[in-house]
Design a protein that fits this description.
heterodimer; A: mainly alpha; 68% helix; 5% strand; globular; B: alpha/beta; Rossmann fold; six-stranded mixed beta sheet; 18 helices
């Protein structure tokens, strides 16, 4: 028997759906093997994780709490990735969004009338996130500076800057040394609708729809489609390449900044340590697993949020490290990246007793 | 099964060349099907030592599939492969290499940042950990002088011209003792001079007892290179003839299965007002060297100006300057009497300029988008395809259907991604889009490059019909016959300057050829 790859004559849409699901299953199996090393029953663990994430009302709201920032950053990352702009700076853009919101809430809270305070606070976060992403975009468009490096390094700048603020000048004097700012005035709190789940979730759902519509149906989305796949052809068609790229990345950063703004106004109601649980990095997995589709991002981020919450639960119920959820998340990425091969190639079998080799079969022309 | 005609080879000759020691390749009854297409149907191919076989056929006739089978990239569904009289199975390119089979692809497979010598030994399975480059270079030099393939072994690939890169590819095969060479459209990227050099190389290869198969759609190539020609049409072998027993007209008919008009019907031009005017335009190339030197030209509506010249004399830059893709250093550019020097590409597109770019894959289309979206890439901005910034998918689809129909683009559906189409149909897609949106000036850079006879004829007719509709056409081409038969005036570009301009009625290949080498009249 010989296994070999053959290029498909047309792109398989089915594969786009199957690959993320199979990747998730493979990740369950691989992590299951890991669990066996801990002398733990994988099935029981997964059951506990599922119950911990979706089993009751409280669990469900906690999952939605974590799904919100994942969804927003996932959308932001997916948009940038569509343009082959490898924005891995969602974490930094989220953090800086939180910082800007905190600044608005803490220092301008008194001068802004209360009905306008929350919108202003959120807007500050959105703008900060956009600008933070705008720096690498500008550098890329004008000087061709590699964005993977700049976005990644700006994460550390943003995170360390926020630490400096809540450990130093912004630390709450009445906070008993706890690293965090004073609480925001209640007018700057994002309303919650169930448990800790806040209306940021609805922002995220709305933005997923909006982004889907923009990419699929708007003139701008059409330009981005050309630009993302072949910038040279875009230039020949008179598309303002640099402008479109910068705009899209600003939008991407704005979504991440909004995630930060929602976290500080909806969950902690202050800027404090542990603003992000690595949402900005998990967003990369969300975006890939959703195949960069904004609507799929909604479902994927709920699933991955479930892993995070479920991971916390198995820590309590089974005595396992809570990072088990993160391990599961990471394990998804490998089969996922490998699996995307199948959208353009298919695996074929041929009876052949002579040798057992697999080959790349590439068709040209 | 449709009948296979084999002509021009009598039994006596057949027995002569099928003598086993001289036989290199014998393909017997090769059949290969892809979903929905029969790429090869029961094909026989024979190649002897010292023989050159041309594989002639339109785009999609099955030439590449057949050669990919010989190279181990595909496996046949049925049929046998015999190499030097022995039945073999070729499962991979490595198997093929071990059997002395090698291919020079149309787009070269060289590493730009490595030297000639490094590229030649790259991938050799028996290369020692620390290769003895002195010995390697000596062996390359030996091969170079044996086969007339002179290149500097220490040059980096990026320093070489396309013709020189091709020499490196051939040397790479010779270094591996390949004696069955497959060349995929070898002259498609070469200048006439380089083609002549290649012809000499092929003669040497024949003398050295090697055999070559080359894929082509150029008739002159067949007659200057090949001993025998095999014509494929839609996966069927329709003829296998010795060159002396055939002529271009017959072959062309066999290839397309219908009569071809080698001469285009052409009405006299009736030029109107001036559309394009370049005044003393100068610009730089990508390396910062002068590409155009005070170039002036003009085109009026209803006429075609042909630009002849050896590639690399400023043609690319000329098209880029007019479309706003390259900045002008001095001089001015007017379209419809409006100065558009250094305007944005979009401004120029809006002033009615369409452009069929030189490199259709990297500049002309977006492979991952559908045919319909590729067709809409110029007209999506305005009504009726867009209203208030929102696209109208059904209008886009409707428009695409009309264009697919009128330009005879072969695609399974308007929603098929362009990268799954053949080269000729990709070009038709670009042509359809650019002509559909063209309002006053059409710039066509090498529009029939790499296309089969039928598609080429279609492109040329379309250019003429645009002219007759009162548009100005700038046709940049390497094909002198094309320029003479299509253009009304021909300007020859040499070293960034126009060295001569002649009405095509007075032009001849000889006269243009002289100008192209910089000999002023």
């Amino acid at each position: 028997m010989v296994l070999y790859f053959e290029k498909r004559k047309a792109l398989s849409k089915r594969v786009l759906v199957i690959v993320p699901i199979v990747s998730f299953l493979i990740s369950l199996i691989l992590t299951g093997i890991l669990l066996l090393f801990f002398h733990t029953d994988p099935i029981a663990t997964y059951r506990a994780m599922f119950k911990g994430a979706f089993g009751n009302f409280h669990a469900l709201t906690e999952t939605l709490v974590k799904a919100t920032p994942l969804m927003l950053t996932g959308l932001g990352v997916a948009l940038a990735f569509k343009l082959k702009f490898w924005n891995i700076g969602a974490e930094g853009q989220l953090t800086l969004g939180g910082v800007a919101s905190a600044w608005m809430a803490l220092f301008l809270g008194r001068s802004i009338p209360s009905p306008f305070l929350l919108p202003a606070v959120i807007l500050a976060g959105v703008i900060a996130g956009a600008l933070w992403a705008g720096v690498p975009a500008l550098l890329k468009a004008s000087l061709k500076v590699d964005e993977t490096l700049t976005t990644l390094m700006l994460n550390y700048v943003a995170i360390l800057f926020s630490e400096h603020l809540y450990y130093g000048p912004w630390r709450d004097p009445k906070g008993y040394g706890f690293p965090g700012t004073a609480p925001f005035p209640p007018a700057a709190w994002l309303p919650r609708f169930a448990g800790r789940a806040h209306i940021g979730l609805f922002f995220a759902l709305f933005l997923a729809l909006l982004l889907w519509f923009l990419l699929k149906r708007s003139r701008w989305g059409f330009e981005l489609g050309i630009l993302g796949n072949n910038p040279e052809a875009a230039r020949h068609q008179g598309i303002p390449v640099a402008r479109d790229l910068i705009l899209a990345v600003l939008f991407s950063g704005a979504l991440c900044g909004l995630a930060g703004a929602c976290e500080v106004t909806g969950i902690s109601r202050r800027l404090q340590q542990g603003l992000s649980l690595g949402y900005g990095y998990s967003a990369i997995i969300v975006a890939w697993m959703a195949q960069l589709n904004p609507l799929a991002t909604v479902f994927v981020s709920i699933l991955l949020a479930g892993l995070l919450v479920g991971g916390d639960q198995v820590q309590m119920t089974m005595g396992l490290p809570s990072s088990m959820g993160l391990v599961l998340q990471g394990m998804i990425l490998f089969p996922l990246l490998a699996g995307n091969l199948f959208s353009e190639y298919r695996l074929r079998f041929r009876r052949d007793s002579s040798r057992l080799i697999s080959f790349w079969r590439r068709e040209r022309g | 099964m449709p009948p296979v005609f084999k002509e021009g080879k009598d039994d006596k000759m057949e027995s002569d060349c099928r003598n086993s020691s001289a036989t290199l390749v014998d393909l017997k009854g090769i059949t290969k099907a892809f979903p929905g297409v029969l790429a090869n149907n029961n094909i026989d191919l024979h190649l002897s030592r010292g023989e050159v076989v041309a594989l002639l056929g339109e785009n999609g006739a099955g030439k590449s599939s057949l050669m990919n089978i010989l190279c181990g990239l595909y496996r046949p569904d049925s049929g046998e492969i015999h190499i030097r009289g022995e039945k073999v199975e070729i499962n991979s390119p490595r198997d093929a290499a071990n059997l002395g089979i090698g291919m020079v692809h149309q787009n070269f497979m060289l590493v730009e940042t490595m030297t000639v010598a490094e590229n030649i030994v790259l991938g050799l399975s028996d290369l020692p950990f620390l290769p003895d480059f002195k010995e390697i270079k000596n062996r390359i030099k030996e091969l170079s002088s044996l086969y007339n393939l002179y290149v500097n072994v220490d040059d980096y690939i990026w320093q070489l011209s396309v013709g020189e890169q091709q020499k490196v590819e051939i040397l790479k095969l010779l270094y591996r003792d390949v004696d069955i060479l497959i060349l995929d459209e070898p002259t498609a990227v070469l200048t006439p001079q380089e083609s002549q050099d290649l012809n000499k190389v092929i003669k040497r290869l024949k003398q050295g007892g090697k055999g070559a198969i080359f894929i082509t759609h150029k008739m002159d190539e067949v007659f200057s290179f090949a001993d025998r020609v095999m014509v494929l049409r839609r996966g069927e072998l329709v003829a296998d003839k010795v060159i002396s027993g055939t002529n271009p007209k017959d072959l062309a008919n066999l290839m397309v299965g219908r009569e071809i008009l080698f001469r285009l019907e052409k009405k006299n031009a009736s030029p109107g007002k001036e559309i394009l005017k370049l005044c003393e335009v100068s610009c730089l190339d990508n390396r910062g060297l002068p590409a155009l030197r005070s170039l002036s030209l003009n085109i009026r509506s209803g006429e075609i100006l042909g630009i002849a010249g050896v590639a690399g004399n400023g043609q690319t830059e000329l098209a880029e300057v007019i479309t706003g893709l390259r900045r002008i250093k001095s001089g001015s550019l007017l379209i419809n009497s409006l100065d558009i020097s250094n305007c944005q590409p979009l401004t120029i597109i809006k002033s009615g300029v369409s452009h069929i770019p030189e490199d259709r894959i990297s500049q002309g289309v977006v492979g991952d988008l559908s045919v319909a979206h590729n067709l809409a890439m110029k007209t999506y901005r305005d009504k009726p395809l867009t209203l208030a910034g929102i696209l109208n998918p059904s209008r886009i689809l409707e428009r695409a259907r009309v264009l697919i129909e009128s330009f005879k683009i072969k695609t399974p559906s308007p929603l098929t991604r362009v990268k799954f189409l053949s080269g000729g149909n990709i070009q038709k897609t670009i042509l359809a889009r650019e002509i559909d949106s063209c309002k006053s000036l059409l710039i066509a850079a090498y529009p029939s490059r790499g296309l089969d006879v039928g598609a080429t004829e279609g492109v040329r007719k379309e250019l003429l019909s645009q002219r007759d509709q009162g548009k100005a056409v700038l046709l940049i081409s390497e094909d002198l016959e094309e320029l003479i038969s299509v253009a009304d005036r021909i300007a020859v570009l040499f070293n960034g300057e126009i060295v001569g301009e002649i009405p095509s009625s007075e032009a001849s290949v000889e006269r243009l050829g002289l100008l192209m080498t910089g000999v002023r009249e």
